[in-house]
Amino acid sequence: MTDLAIYDMDRTVTRNATYTPFLIHCATQRAPWRLLLLPFVIGSMLAYVLKLIDRARLKEINHKLLLGDKRSRAELRPLVESFAEKQLRSNIRPGAIKAIARDKSEGRVVVMATASYRFYAKEIGERLGFDHIIGTKSILGLDEILHAKIDGENCYGPAKKRMIDDWVNEHSVTPGKIRFYSDHASDEPVFEWSDEPVAVNPHDRLEKMAKERGWRVEDWG
Fold it and tell me: Is 5 exposed, middle or buried (0-12, 13-18, 19+ CB in 10 A)?
Protein backbone atom coordinates (compact mmCIF):
# COMPACT_ATOMS: atom_id res chain seq x y z
CA MET A 1 0.00 0.00 0.00
CA THR A 2 1.30 3.43 -0.96
CA ASP A 3 0.13 6.57 0.78
CA LEU A 4 -0.29 9.43 -1.69
CA ALA A 5 -0.38 13.22 -1.52
CA ILE A 6 -1.86 14.62 -4.72
CA TYR A 7 -1.71 18.32 -5.54
CA ASP A 8 -3.41 20.50 -8.10
CA MET A 9 -0.95 23.11 -9.42
CA ASP A 10 -2.48 26.38 -10.64
CA ARG A 11 -3.64 28.57 -7.73
CA THR A 12 -2.98 25.69 -5.32
CA VAL A 13 0.78 25.25 -5.42
CA THR A 14 1.13 28.48 -7.38
CA ARG A 15 -0.43 31.81 -6.45
CA ASN A 16 -1.56 32.52 -10.00
CA ALA A 17 -2.45 30.48 -13.06
CA THR A 18 0.46 29.51 -15.30
CA TYR A 19 -0.91 28.56 -18.72
CA THR A 20 -1.37 31.94 -20.42
CA PRO A 21 1.72 33.41 -18.66
CA PHE A 22 3.72 30.47 -20.02
CA LEU A 23 2.58 31.16 -23.58
CA ILE A 24 3.28 34.89 -23.20
CA HIS A 25 6.72 34.06 -21.78
CA CYS A 26 7.49 31.91 -24.82
CA ALA A 27 6.20 34.51 -27.26
CA THR A 28 8.22 37.26 -25.58
CA GLN A 29 11.41 35.21 -25.63
CA ARG A 30 11.05 33.48 -28.98
CA ALA A 31 8.76 35.50 -31.25
CA PRO A 32 7.61 38.86 -29.84
CA TRP A 33 5.51 39.53 -32.92
CA ARG A 34 3.09 36.89 -31.64
CA LEU A 35 2.06 39.27 -28.85
CA LEU A 36 0.16 41.15 -31.57
CA LEU A 37 -2.17 38.13 -31.59
CA LEU A 38 -3.29 38.72 -27.99
CA PRO A 39 -6.66 40.20 -29.13
CA PHE A 40 -7.38 36.82 -30.74
CA VAL A 41 -6.42 35.12 -27.47
CA ILE A 42 -8.94 37.33 -25.67
CA GLY A 43 -11.50 36.47 -28.35
CA SER A 44 -10.98 32.76 -27.78
CA MET A 45 -11.46 33.27 -24.04
CA LEU A 46 -14.73 35.05 -24.74
CA ALA A 47 -15.79 32.15 -26.96
CA TYR A 48 -15.11 29.83 -24.03
CA VAL A 49 -17.12 31.98 -21.62
CA LEU A 50 -20.00 31.89 -24.13
CA LYS A 51 -19.63 28.07 -24.27
CA LEU A 52 -18.82 28.11 -27.98
CA ILE A 53 -15.67 26.08 -27.34
CA ASP A 54 -14.52 23.87 -24.46
CA ARG A 55 -11.40 24.28 -22.30
CA ALA A 56 -9.38 21.82 -24.35
CA ARG A 57 -10.05 23.67 -27.59
CA LEU A 58 -9.28 26.98 -25.86
CA LYS A 59 -5.86 25.64 -24.92
CA GLU A 60 -5.14 24.41 -28.41
CA ILE A 61 -6.10 27.73 -30.00
CA ASN A 62 -3.99 29.81 -27.63
CA HIS A 63 -1.05 27.41 -27.92
CA LYS A 64 -1.14 27.81 -31.70
CA LEU A 65 -1.47 31.60 -31.52
CA LEU A 66 1.31 32.34 -29.02
CA LEU A 67 3.66 29.39 -29.38
CA GLY A 68 2.99 28.16 -32.89
CA ASP A 69 1.51 25.01 -34.36
CA LYS A 70 4.73 22.98 -34.20
CA ARG A 71 7.86 23.42 -32.09
CA SER A 72 10.80 21.10 -31.51
CA ARG A 73 11.42 19.95 -27.96
CA ALA A 74 14.99 21.22 -28.23
CA GLU A 75 13.70 24.69 -29.09
CA LEU A 76 11.22 24.64 -26.21
CA ARG A 77 13.62 23.34 -23.60
CA PRO A 78 15.28 26.65 -22.61
CA LEU A 79 11.89 28.42 -22.64
CA VAL A 80 10.37 25.81 -20.35
CA GLU A 81 13.34 25.86 -17.99
CA SER A 82 13.46 29.65 -17.72
CA PHE A 83 9.71 29.77 -17.10
CA ALA A 84 9.96 27.13 -14.37
CA GLU A 85 12.73 29.08 -12.65
CA LYS A 86 10.62 32.22 -12.84
CA GLN A 87 7.70 30.44 -11.15
CA LEU A 88 9.90 29.21 -8.33
CA ARG A 89 11.17 32.72 -7.70
CA SER A 90 7.83 34.50 -7.53
CA ASN A 91 4.74 32.31 -7.91
CA ILE A 92 4.89 29.48 -5.36
CA ARG A 93 2.74 29.58 -2.24
CA PRO A 94 4.85 29.28 0.95
CA GLY A 95 2.31 26.84 2.36
CA ALA A 96 2.77 24.53 -0.61
CA ILE A 97 6.49 24.20 0.07
CA LYS A 98 5.77 23.33 3.71
CA ALA A 99 3.05 20.83 2.75
CA ILE A 100 5.30 19.05 0.24
CA ALA A 101 8.03 18.74 2.87
CA ARG A 102 5.53 17.45 5.42
CA ASP A 103 4.06 14.85 3.06
CA LYS A 104 7.50 13.61 2.09
CA SER A 105 8.52 13.36 5.75
CA GLU A 106 5.44 11.17 6.30
CA GLY A 107 6.64 8.84 3.55
CA ARG A 108 3.94 9.73 1.04
CA VAL A 109 4.50 9.62 -2.70
CA VAL A 110 3.92 13.22 -3.79
CA VAL A 111 2.09 13.64 -7.10
CA MET A 112 1.07 16.72 -9.08
CA ALA A 113 -2.16 16.42 -11.09
CA THR A 114 -2.74 19.52 -13.17
CA ALA A 115 -4.76 20.69 -16.14
CA SER A 116 -1.68 22.59 -17.32
CA TYR A 117 0.44 21.05 -20.04
CA ARG A 118 2.67 18.36 -18.60
CA PHE A 119 5.69 19.35 -20.69
CA TYR A 120 6.17 22.54 -18.63
CA ALA A 121 4.41 21.54 -15.38
CA LYS A 122 6.95 18.71 -15.09
CA GLU A 123 9.80 21.23 -14.89
CA ILE A 124 8.04 23.15 -12.12
CA GLY A 125 7.00 20.02 -10.24
CA GLU A 126 10.40 18.36 -10.30
CA ARG A 127 12.06 21.49 -8.97
CA LEU A 128 9.61 21.43 -6.05
CA GLY A 129 10.31 17.79 -5.27
CA PHE A 130 7.28 16.05 -6.75
CA ASP A 131 7.78 12.35 -7.47
CA HIS A 132 5.35 12.16 -10.40
CA ILE A 133 3.57 14.65 -12.65
CA ILE A 134 0.16 14.03 -14.22
CA GLY A 135 -0.95 16.70 -16.67
CA THR A 136 -2.50 17.48 -20.02
CA LYS A 137 -0.39 15.90 -22.73
CA SER A 138 0.49 17.37 -26.10
CA ILE A 139 0.84 15.32 -29.25
CA LEU A 140 4.51 14.57 -29.86
CA GLY A 141 5.55 13.48 -33.32
CA LEU A 142 8.19 10.87 -34.09
CA ASP A 143 10.43 13.75 -35.09
CA GLU A 144 10.26 15.16 -31.52
CA ILE A 145 8.03 17.99 -32.71
CA LEU A 146 5.45 19.18 -30.19
CA HIS A 147 2.08 19.99 -31.77
CA ALA A 148 -0.57 22.47 -30.62
CA LYS A 149 -2.95 19.58 -30.11
CA ILE A 150 -3.95 17.77 -26.92
CA ASP A 151 -3.10 14.08 -26.71
CA GLY A 152 -6.06 12.43 -25.00
CA GLU A 153 -8.03 14.42 -22.43
CA ASN A 154 -7.59 17.82 -20.85
CA CYS A 155 -6.69 16.96 -17.24
CA TYR A 156 -9.62 18.88 -15.74
CA GLY A 157 -12.75 17.96 -13.79
CA PRO A 158 -13.80 14.30 -14.12
CA ALA A 159 -10.97 13.76 -16.63
CA LYS A 160 -8.41 14.49 -13.89
CA LYS A 161 -9.78 11.60 -11.82
CA ARG A 162 -9.64 9.30 -14.85
CA MET A 163 -6.04 10.31 -15.55
CA ILE A 164 -5.08 9.69 -11.92
CA ASP A 165 -6.68 6.25 -12.20
CA ASP A 166 -4.67 5.61 -15.37
CA TRP A 167 -1.47 6.65 -13.56
CA VAL A 168 -2.29 4.33 -10.64
CA ASN A 169 -2.77 1.40 -13.03
CA GLU A 170 0.24 2.23 -15.20
CA HIS A 171 2.57 2.38 -12.18
CA SER A 172 0.93 -0.61 -10.43
CA VAL A 173 0.26 1.52 -7.35
CA THR A 174 -1.97 0.16 -4.61
CA PRO A 175 -3.19 3.36 -2.95
CA GLY A 176 -3.23 3.54 0.82
CA LYS A 177 -4.32 6.81 2.42
CA ILE A 178 -4.86 9.57 -0.13
CA ARG A 179 -4.53 13.27 0.69
CA PHE A 180 -5.66 15.70 -2.01
CA TYR A 181 -5.13 19.46 -2.25
CA SER A 182 -6.87 21.86 -4.62
CA ASP A 183 -8.31 25.36 -4.78
CA HIS A 184 -11.16 24.61 -7.16
CA ALA A 185 -14.55 22.87 -7.07
CA SER A 186 -13.94 21.36 -10.52
CA ASP A 187 -11.78 18.83 -8.67
CA GLU A 188 -14.80 17.47 -6.78
CA PRO A 189 -14.35 13.91 -8.18
CA VAL A 190 -10.82 13.71 -6.75
CA PHE A 191 -11.85 15.36 -3.48
CA GLU A 192 -14.60 12.76 -3.04
CA TRP A 193 -12.23 9.89 -3.88
CA SER A 194 -9.54 10.99 -1.45
CA ASP A 195 -9.42 10.07 2.22
CA GLU A 196 -8.24 13.50 3.28
CA PRO A 197 -9.52 16.31 1.06
CA VAL A 198 -7.93 19.71 1.68
CA ALA A 199 -9.34 22.90 0.15
CA VAL A 200 -6.44 25.32 -0.34
CA ASN A 201 -7.23 29.05 -0.55
CA PRO A 202 -10.62 28.00 -1.96
CA HIS A 203 -12.84 30.16 -4.13
CA ASP A 204 -16.42 30.71 -2.94
CA ARG A 205 -18.00 27.55 -4.38
CA LEU A 206 -15.30 25.24 -3.01
CA GLU A 207 -15.29 26.99 0.36
CA LYS A 208 -19.01 26.34 0.68
CA MET A 209 -18.59 22.74 -0.47
CA ALA A 210 -15.80 22.17 2.06
CA LYS A 211 -17.85 23.52 4.94
CA GLU A 212 -20.86 21.38 4.00
CA ARG A 213 -18.80 18.20 3.69
CA GLY A 214 -16.37 18.74 6.54
CA TRP A 215 -13.24 19.05 4.42
CA ARG A 216 -10.20 20.77 5.86
CA VAL A 217 -9.53 24.30 4.61
CA GLU A 218 -6.00 25.73 4.59
CA ASP A 219 -4.56 29.14 3.74
CA TRP A 220 -1.17 28.73 2.09
CA GLY A 221 -0.47 32.43 1.76
Answer: buried
Q: Are 147 and 138 in contact (CB under 8 A)?
A: yes
What percentage of the chain exceeds 90 in pLDDT? 92
- Rounded CA-CA distance 111/166 in Å is 13
* Superfamily for the 2-218 domain: HAD superfamily/HAD-like (3.40.50.1000)
The pLDDT of residue 143:
73
Task: Calculate the dihedral angle through the C-alpha atoms of 133, 5, 168, 210, rounding to the nearest 10 degrees.
Answer: -110
pTM of structure: 0.94
Residues 6+ apart with CB under 8 A from 5: 99, 100, 103, 108, 109, 110, 111, 179, 180, 181
Q: CA-to-CA distance for 108 and 3, rounded, in angstroms?
A: 5
Mean pLDDT to the nearest integer, 35-60: 94
Q: Are 181 and 163 in contact (CB under 8 A)?
A: no
